[in-house]
Amino acid sequence: MAYEIYRTHDVNVSSRGIIANNEYLVFGSSGFVTAPYGDYWKFMKKLLATKLLRPQAIEQSRGVRAEELERFYFNILDKATKKESIEIVKEVMKLTNNMICRMSMGRSCSEESGEAERVRKLVVKSMALTMKIVVAYLIQPLQKLGISLFKKEIMGVSHGFDELLERILVEHEEKLEENHDMDMMSLLLEAYRDEKAEYKITRKHIKSLFVEIFTAGTDSTATATQWTMAEIVNNPNVLERLREEIDSVVGKARLIQETDLPNLPFLQAVVKEGLRLHPPAPLLIRRFEESCEIKGFYIPKDTTLLVNVNAVMRDPNSWEDPDEFKPEKFLASSKSEQEDEVREQALKFLPFGGGRRGCPGIKLAYIFLGTAIGMMVQCFDWRIKGEKVNMEETFEGTSLTMAHPLKCIPVVRINPSISN
Ligand code: HEM
């Protein structure tokens, strides 16, 4: 059913139906994630695909991510030396947020200046707010009131982001002429100044997109890393196989880097299996713009569509041992098998949604997850209280998170030499 919707009815369900009619940066009418499928969305999507998130742009910012991975390593090393426990989700939030801030806004948003911490706090607030809004949206009598129910909170978070982003925009404008390092903000400013652009974007559009990239990219990656680490800790066989692979490909003398990922098929399979069992966005919201018929069911215009990604990815008709963490599901023994697998998985593996409104950050997400999980497994052992991690879930908004966030004490396993 999900396949038919995404392939045959993709355009018809390419709006989310969340009506934003205010001027705020969070859930405002200049947002991209909530934008209806139309000229603005198409223009921004093209910009994301051809400039901001294109492979060459991702390649250019590799150095920034490598530095942040090292910083993450040293942070954990410090805790290991002091025998302190860490809450994985919080540490990974810092890592991904720093990476996204620096990739998108250059050096202006650093840990040292305290700006990264401010962004992080605002991201946490807007995630909590998003969850409340989405829940309200799903309850019929509240749907009409929707966003206006949370006006005060939306104003507060939007104001915080606006102040920060306006200052960084001005800094970028001042440096635009001399700036040869084109980060995302500089590229967007170029589009903003382009008189001949197909769509005239505003400063508000730029700021709203940033808010959304921070929230869409940071929280989902941190949640997925936490779940996958919990599965690894609970499955010593997986941990052992993962280490064997990393030790043989990367060795023990240097830190894993993102260029190693294509040579680490088991690590890639572990990441996918984590996303299959614990998708950070288990329910996807869309709306039918026109009435239609799907598999004999008549769907009236304006019907809300919820794709239950969690159910699709645990369907026993599609997956062997659907509730078990077995990364081997994603390993193919031969090249032709691999191609068949990729085709087949496209229909039933949906952690990033599907169709034209699917996640544009997939490539980056796999880099964040692969390097963070790879480094934690390569360099540290992880001690927990008790025998097993408690995998109880809790439902927050449309997100399935760990009811008991994963806390572990890192123990140094290897000490790779670091470049700086
Ligand atoms: C583990 C990490 C991630 C997961 C699981 C994830 C998942 C998703 C999902 C399920 C959607 C909705 C898709 C749909 O409706 O079909 C989405 C949308 C989106 N994601 Fe991601 N995402 C991740 C990381 C990222 C990153 C790193 C970025 C950006 C740098 C990003 C940017 C976006 C944007 C902008 C949208 C809205 C697309 C639109 O409305 O057209 N995501 N993501």
TrEMBL record:
Membrane-traversing stretches: none
GO cellular component: membrane
InterPro entries, sorted: Cyt_P450, Cyt_P450_CS, Cyt_P450_E_grp-I, Cyt_P450_sf, Plant_metabolite_P450s
Keyword entries, A-Z: Heme, Iron, Membrane, Metal-binding, Monooxygenase, Oxidoreductase, Transmembrane, Transmembrane helix
Subcellular location: Membrane
Chief localization: membrane
Cofactor(s) needed: heme
Record-listed heme binding positions: C359
Membrane topology: Single-pass membrane protein
Protein's UniProt keywords contain Oxidoreductase: yes
GO molecular function, one term: iron ion binding
Family: Belongs to the cytochrome P450 family.
PANTHER family recorded: CYTOCHROME P450, FAMILY 705, SUBFAMILY A, POLYPEPTIDE 18-RELATED (PTHR24298:SF882), FLAVONOID 3'-MONOOXYGENASE-RELATED (PTHR24298)
Name by which UniProt lists this protein: Cytochrome p450
The species this protein was found in: Arabis alpina (Alpine rock-cress)
